[in-house]
Write a structure and sequence with these properties.
- The complex is a heterodimer of chains A (about 210) and B (about 675).
- Chain A is mainly α and about 210 residues long.
- Chain A is about 70% helix and about 5% strand.
- The longest helix of chain A has 24 residues, at about 145-165.
- Chain B is an alpha+beta fold and about 675 residues long.
- Chain B is built from 13 helices and 35 strands.
- In chain B, the strands form six sheets. In chain B, strands 1-5-9-8-34-7-6-10-4-3-14-17-16 form a 13-stranded mixed beta sheet. In chain B, strands 21, 22, 23, 24, 25, 26 and 27 form a seven-stranded mixed beta sheet that branches. A four-stranded antiparallel beta sheet of chain B has the order 11-12-18-15, with no helix packed on it.
- In chain B, helix 6 (about 395-405) packs parallel to helix 7 (about 420-430).
- Classes of the chains: A mainly alpha (about 210), B alpha+beta (about 675).
- The interface between A and B is large, with 70 and 48 residues.
Chain lengths: ~210, ~675
């Protein structure tokens, strides 16, 4: 582990990226002046195929309804903050990779979906990233109780995802705005997060800021 | 619904006229033992306008008689579903003859009399759900003859997707006719189809599968023009046109009225697009696939296997399935229900991929076997995939109606190919509270299945009932609509005495609770923009009479009289009315009124006005919306649910505690 300078630390002690993204997502949904931008950002199959590739990433920033925004953004802020504080580069990598993976999974494997919105695919990636990192840490620190708790949490989450993908529908509906949940997006996101967590240290991380194990 | 078509067959030979039914085929038909050269198709042009909730299709074909003698020709094309054939014109040299609809027997008698006297004459008849047949006499030796006809169909949109079919592929359901005729399906010179879509709602995209050369022009957000133009094309592939409305459109009520005379009743088409949050069904269900493997399914089995395999692979944990096939007899391939898991689904897919066709079609036995050994504790759906031409065993529609009424099971029917027996399928599905859909080999099969599956795995409205008060309406059909599935539109035709404010209420049960949706809007005193609505209204009434007759609920003689009366009054070709084509002198000689000429003149005038207009939004419940949620869509959302949210919070808290614990 490399140590940080005091100047660096003051910046890194805050999950700046998570907060900025969260602020932007909330503004994009709430401010009437940005309503047009939300449409320009959403993942739209025909637009993506006709060359508007930015939507592959920006689609995750737009949301469909207040409940949809609150659940997705709340989860993003909680998971994002922890992930970012632990390892900002890996957090950014997981976010970007999940953004791409979710969009291409919907493009290729959910042909009935014409429009897609929401941060939840990225939330799933952060869940996968944090879970693997923490399980690894618990194992290295020989904390079987912690490892068991983490594995149970992760198992429940991934089991739910697998069920939803197999069933082709979400277990719980939180959105009545005419949008249909896309479980495949969560699975693609979770796999992207897990992949980033397993990337060799030199490929993914500038430094680990958590205490050495 | 959607389906239209044309198949053209100009058939030679006066002796052939003795046959009452022709093979449906996309091309000219020649008797196998004929010594004449086949009639050639020089060109084939189709103009389609999709606007104001209905489709207008105009077809023009030019035929060439290469023989040295004049011939009587028979021109046959498959009956498009729910289409009202309203205009036929024949151009032969300088002669132009037009049609008037009269009772079937009278039309044939007059036609034969005119033909025998050597006068120019024509006749358009309907052969149940299979074909329209045109007799034309004479077709001059070495000359061109041009035939033009127009028909109208109501449009409906399923889960935001509209679908229009121009069938060209032979349905292959009339084996005797196919054995008799040789089809010549080649267009020698030009083939073209122009589709103009004028939607008042923004359109996300349009698509014509299999026609990658289609030229698509977007004129406005709801206005598209699509053109396919080819040289020397073979008429053996359906044209399917999809248009997907933009997502997030409101649940709504639209009204297309027609009332030209304040002293007479008006006519209306009302389209209700429910905006109701129908939740996914949580518990597993039983699905029985009843698959037609008779001889007429040859050429369609690949589509069948693809569709069923896709459905099987999308089974949910807790679902069970059963596979039954039928031709001369029914067989249970899985010997009862099988729990859906990876291994059993794989085995099921292999079974359907190895099916082969042959033999007759005993639909009744297939359904009866599917109704054996039902589990009363589980919801059961029967997915019936067939071309519906029952010809073995019990073939009476009333028997099917009686059978389905004995069980609490929903039948979802998929009719493959053209010339399929729609009336029988409709009786089966309506008696069970299910629905039916047509599938062309050119369709996006997966897309069609996705829409159908979304209906099977979501809640539906039960005991739905639509009432209109405040304005006197009549002939709207049964106000009890039964079940309403996710994405379905309700299309209601009727008559109204005079304009005024109407209260429209949709009552239904959803998850055991009563739901009521209500709105108020005005029926206009006068509205002359869409006179074609009258023909569509008449066709709707005729179809309802036919369903009742097929189900054994109406005496055939009474049904026949009612259908003939409507056919003549509204000038549409039915099983009991035909379109007689004569010269003006000919109509005068036989003392026949020119009702259709007057009706066509009114329609053309309205069409010329509409052609210059932008699409008109016909929504009538803006000020008092009937629904407060958007119409179901194909939009996806990534949505964290409460369970995932709690798990994420737990993980984050544990991680933070570990981290801060170490740091301190």
């Amino acid at each position: 582990m490399t140590s940080s300078t005091s100047t660096d630390r003051s910046a890194r002690d805050w999950p700046v990226v998570s907060l900025l993204v969260g602020l932007f997502v909330a503004a994009l949904f709430a401010l009437p002046a940005l309503a047009g931008l939300a449409e320009t950002f959403e993942w739209r199959r025909t637009a993506v195929l006709s060359g508007e590739w930015w939507r592959v990433l920006t689609g995750h920033l737009s949301h469909t309804s207040v409940p949809n925004l609150l659940w997705n953004l709340g989860t993003f802020l909680v998971l994002g903050a922890v992930c970012e504080l632990q390892d900002r580069r890996r957090f950014l990598l997981a976010t970007l990779l999940a953004g791409l993976a979710v969009s291409f999974a919907v493009l290729l494997f959910a042909p009935e979906t014409t429009v897609y919105r929401g941060l939840s695919g990225i939330d799933s990636a952060l869940f996968g990233l944090l879970l693997v990192q923490m399980v690894r840490r618990a194992r290295n620190q020989r904390q079987p109780a912690l490892a068991a708790l983490l594995l149970a949490t992760g198992g429940l989450f991934l089991g739910k995802l697998a069920y939803e993908v197999l069933a082709g529908q979400a277990l719980f509906a939180v959105d009545a705005s005419g949008f249909v949940p896309v479980p495949l997006a969560h699975l693609a996101g979770a796999l992207a997060g897990i992949l980033v967590a397993w990337l060799p240290h030199h490929m993914a991380s500038a430094r680990m800021r958590m205490p050495a194990t | 619904m959607k389906r239209m078509h044309l198949l053209g067959g100009l058939v030679l030979a006066s002796h052939a006229l003795l046959l009452s039914s022709l093979a449906p085929a996309a091309g000219t038909l020649t008797a196998r033992d004929s010594s004449h050269q086949p009639i050639r198709i020089r060109n084939h042009h189709v103009d389609v306008v999709l606007n104001n909730g209905f489709a207008r299709t105009e077809v023009q074909q030019t035929f060439f008689n290469p023989n040295p003698v004049d011939l009587e020709a028979i021109y046959s094309f498959p009956a498009p579903k729910s289409a009202s054939l309203s205009e036929v014109t024949i151009y032969s040299g300088e002669q132009v003859i037009e049609g008037e609809v009269v009772r079937r027997e009278e039309a044939r008698t007059i036609y034969e009399s005119e033909r025998d006297q050597g006068n120019d004459a024509g006749l358009a008849e309907k052969d149940e759900y299979r074909t329209y047949e045109f007799s034309i006499s004479p077709v001059r030796a070495g000359s061109d003859t041009r035939v033009r006809f127009v028909y109208y169909q109501p449009l409906s949109i399923d889960t935001g997707v509209g679908r229009y079919v121009y069938p060209l592929e032979d349905g292959g359901t009339d084996e005797a006719a196919l054995a008799f005729w040789t089809a010549h399906e080649q267009v020698d010179e030009e083939f073209s189809i122009d589709i103009e879509l004028k939607s008042a709602w923004p359109v996300e995209t349009v698509r014509m599968p299999g026609f990658n050369d289609a030229q698509i022009d977007r004129l406005d957000e709801g206005h598209y023009q699509v053109r396919v133009e080819r040289q020397a094309m073979s008429l053996n592939q359906d044209l399917v046109f999809y248009y997907a409305l933009k997502d997030g459109l409101p649940g709504r009520v639209e009204l297309i009225p027609y009332r030209a005379d304040p002293q007479r009743p008006g006519t209306f088409m009302m389209v209700v697009t429910p905006g109701i949050d129908l939740q996914p069904l949580a518990q597993g269900a039983d699905f029985t696939f009843v698959l037609d493997v008779s001889g007429s399914m040859a050429g369609k089995l690949e589509t069948l296997a693809l569709g069923v395999a896709k459905s099987l692979t999308e089974m949910r944990p807790g679902d069970r399935y059963r596979l039954i096939t039928f031709n001369d007899r029914a067989r249970d391939l899985t010997h009862g229900f099988v729990p859906a898991n990876e291994a059993t689904v794989e085995a099921g897919v292999r079974l359907v991929q190895t099916l082969s066709s042959g033999g007759g079609t005993d639909v009744y036995s297939g359904l009866a076997l599917a109704l054996d050994d039902l589990d009363d504790d589980r919801a059961t759906s029967i997915v019936l995939v067939t071309d519906g031409v029952a010809n073995v065993g019990n073939v009476e529609a009333s028997a099917f109606h009686e059978l389905m009424k004995r069980y609490d099971v929903r039948v979802f029917g998929f009719l493959l190919g053209n010339n399929a027996n729609w009336p029988l399928m409709r009786v089966i599905c309506e008696a069970s509270g299910g629905f039916s859909a047509g599938v062309s080999n050119t369709d996006d099969i997966v897309g069609q299945l996705v829409l159908a599956k979304s209906k099977l795995v979501h809640e539906c409205l039960h005991d739905a009932k639509l009432t209109i008060r405040g304005v006197r309406v009549k002939n709207t059909g049964d106000e009890l609509l039964g079940k309403v599935y996710r994405g379905q539109q309700l299309v209601i035709f009727g008559r109204y005495e005079q304009g005024g404010t109407a209260e429209v209420t949709l009552e239904a049960r959803l998850t055991g609770q009563d739901r009521t949706y209500h709105t108020t809007f005005d029926f206009p005193e006068i509205d002359t923009e869409n006179p074609e609505i009258e023909r569509l209204y008449a066709l709707d009434r005729i179809e309802r009479i036919q369903v009742r007759q097929d189900a054994g609920l109406e005496e055939p003689s009474e049904a026949r009289e009612a259908i003939a009366g409507l056919g003549v009054e509204y000038q549409i070709v039915t099983d009991h009315t035909s379109m007689l084509l004569l010269s003006d002198d000919g109509f005068e000689r036989h003392g026949l009124e020119r009702q259709n000429r007057e009706r066509v003149a009114i329609e053309r005038k309205a069409q010329s006005v509409r052609a210059k207009q932008a699409p008109v939004n016909r929504r009538v419940d803006q000020s008092q919306p009937m629904f407060h949620e958007p119409a179901p869509s194909r939009r996806g959302a990534g949505a964290i649910d409460p369970l995932s949210g709690v798990l994420a919070l737990l993980l984050a808290v544990v991680s933070a505690l570990v981290w801060f614990g170490k740091r301190s």
